[in-house]
Amino acid sequence: MKKKIAIIGAGIAGLTLANFIKRNSDHEFMLYEKNESLSLDEGYGIQLSTNSIKILNQIEFNKINDKKIFHPKAVDFYNIQNKKICDLDLTQFNKGQSKYTTLQRSTLIEFLKDEVYTQHLRFGKKIKEVSELKGKVLIKFDDNTNDLVDIVVGADGIFSNTRSFFEKKKNEPKFKKAVAVRTILKSKSDLTIDEENISLMMGKNCHVVIYPINKNKELNVVCIIREKKYDPDNIKLLVGKVIAQNSDLEKVFKGDLKSWPLYFTPQILPSTNNKVFYIGDAFNGFLPTLAQGAGQSIESAYELFNLIQDDKAEIQNIYFQERSRRAKLVKRRSNINFFAFHFSSLIMQTLRNFFMKFLVKRKKFISSYLGTVYKN
Ligand SMILES: Cc1cc2nc3c(=O)[nH]c(=O)nc-3n(C[C@H](O)[C@H](O)[C@H](O)COP(=O)(O)OP(=O)(O)OC[C@H]3O[C@@H](n4cnc5c(N)ncnc54)[C@H](O)[C@@H]3O)c2cc1C
Fold first, then answer.
1. Model-level pTM?
2. Is there a contact between 95 and 38 (Cβ–Cβ < 8 Å)?
3. What number does the ligand 1 atom closest to the CA of 32 have?
4. Rounded (to 5) percent helix, strand, coil in the chain
5. Is the CB of 121 under 6 A from ligand 1?
6. Could you tell me if 112 and 19 are in contact, meaning their C-beta atoms sit under 8 angstroms apart?
């Protein structure tokens, strides 16, 4: 049955859902974004593993300009002094056109917005009030416009405002006591790394990830540093703690630095309204240590689209069961990685490195630790 759908938030999750509805169904939909435009200047890189690429290829991501993306073949693990520990072959997860991919977030947003057109996007929209009317949901926006819809999809990120209108139980995101700092490196890094791979350097209370984001040899650099408080005016000092562990990293962090505090969602909670669904970070916000935030946003949008298409009863239940199963799996691994990447004690680092060298070549372990996440 044809439905009217309001998607709140035009990030990766909301735009992915909009693409599937637009291309593969005749449901009516509108994307409501609080900002006045799409944030195309956020230049940070993202990694997309094969689970999300396989889904994106169904909306012709495989036709994207090849120069704008990269397919790293491995993750190289180093200690913070740039001494190699081991490497993980990423090509083992690739299948046909579904290849592990790195790119700029803005490249993905550009691609996703192309098919949606302005006729399905409304900017400067924030919900003011919601109510039920004739079995539908009436949304009133703060600019005094409204929409009467069959389904509301909260895709408004980890601090989802949509949740506060529909859910009594609060699930406030928690600060992980860690800060992410990122920059783009346009020239060679001077580190002894293969710049065509993903390099992950693990130090005391921090780790640095460097990877190519296109064929122009531009590198995304992101550093996660454990820190009890987030102070945006203190970022140089914070990065200083990383550079103190390897002075060669000074050049890497010389450019424009952007920072943000790391938050995660403490609980995975279902929607209490049958007409309301949450996707992407609004469903659950992950730590970035498994690089699955965007991937899970894409997966959740795709799962919800298929359920709406099938028009099954119990959609809410089926969606929550499957989504929470996936989210728990990713959450567990992201937490383990966060813990293991930041050991401060030398003994723990030595033990970790020993086990990593051993495990990374164990097919059974890799297939249960990563294969289950990347499979889809
Ligand atoms: C350091 C770091 C590195 C990362 N690296 C990776 C990676 O390598 N791979 C990966 O897969 N993921 C990564 N992620 C995570 C990933 O970026 C996010 O999980 C993903 O972007 C979430 O998408 P989303 O659409 O759910 O939310 P968002 O991208 O937050 O989009 C939400 C949208 O909703 C809008 N909005 C907000 N409030 C309202 C409102 N009240 N009304 C209307 N609109 C609203 C916002 O303006 C925004 O456009 C990383 C995250 C961090 C912090």
1. 0.96
2. no
3. 43
4. 40, 25, 35
5. no
6. yes
CA-to-CA distance for 279 and 264, rounded, in angstroms?
15
Closest residue by CA, ligand 1 atom 11: 294
Distance 12 CA to ligand 1 centre (A): 7
Half-sphere exposure of 2 (CA within 13 A, CB side): 5
Joined together, the tokens standing for residue 256 give: 């424009």
Is the model's pLDDT at 376 over the cut of 60? no
For ligand 1, atom 27, the nearest C-alpha belongs to 157
The single-letter code of the amino acid at 121 is L
* Nearest ligand 1 atom to alpha carbon 279: 26
Please name every residue paired with 103 in a beta bridge, in sequence order, or none if there are none: 46, 69
H/E stretch holding 47:
strand 45-48
3-class secondary-structure state, position 56 = helix
Cβ atoms of 347 and 328 within 8 Å: the answer is no
Helices (H), the chain: 12-24, 50-57, 105-114, 161-166, 235-243, 293-310, 315-341, 346-359, 363-366, 372-374
Inter-CA distances, 35 with 18, 39, 108, 129, 285, Å: 17, 8, 18, 18, 20
Q: pLDDT tens across 254-293, in order?
A: 989 999 999 999 999 999 999 999 999 999 999 999 999 9
76 in Cβ contact with 87 (< 8 Å): yes
Residue of 253, 188, 247, 251 whose CA lies nearest to 223: 253
